[in-house]
Design a protein that fits this description.
Length: about 180
């Protein structure tokens, strides 16, 4: 059932923090705080698969600093102390992602490789494959962070978005899958 948007908090209540609905609503409201917006929340397709990716820390930290990781264009910062092991860095990163509920992913330390963080898109489907995962570029005279990241992959399936959008008519609609 289409519903009028009551704001970002409403979109988070309907779709969940970090959902496509919440992120699209926040992006729209950042540019237009007054315009009328309707959305059509949809459940994830039962056959859809959430996109997944990973980041593996390959070396111990050699100096203190701040790790700047961008997830879906949102910056996540994490303090790094000298001599943190790859496993400690992975644990700290997974905890930082868990606290940042507005990110479009969840994170957990891999069960086999403790220096590896596994990311999973909150919404199922191929759209999760577009969630970008990257470190901030190193500035002149600074070293890039030691670690390797993947883009999300493996997301598959769609919801009944086309059929649902047709049922609304000519009104602009943001389509989301509840997670």
């Amino acid at each position: 059932m289409p519903r009028i948007c009551q704001g970002v908090a409403d979109a988070k209540a309907v779709g969940g923090p970090g959902s496509m609905l919440a992120l699209m609503t926040a992006a729209y409201r950042a540019r237009d705080s007054f315009g009328e917006v309707w959305y059509l929340p949809l459940a994830d397709d039962g056959a859809a698969v959430a996109a997944a990716g990973s980041l593996n820390f390959t070396a111990q930290a050699t100096s203190k600093g701040t790790l700047n990781l961008y997830i879906g264009g949102q910056r996540l910062t994490m303090a790094v102390s000298s001599s943190q092991t790859p496993a400690q860095l992975a644990t700290a990163l997974a905890a930082a992602v868990t606290v940042a509920t507005d990110l479009p992913v969840t994170a957990a330390v891999d069960g086999m490789t403790t220096s590896k963080v596994n990311f999973t898109a909150k919404n199922k489907g191929a759209a999760g494959n577009d969630i970008d995962l990257r470190f901030r570029r190193a500035r002149r005279g600074r070293k890039a962070c030691a670690g390797a990241g993947d883009h999300r992959r493996g997301g598959a399936g769609v919801s009944g978005s086309r059929e649902a959008a047709r049922s609304v008519g000519d009104e602009g609609v943001m389509v989301d899958r509840l997670w």
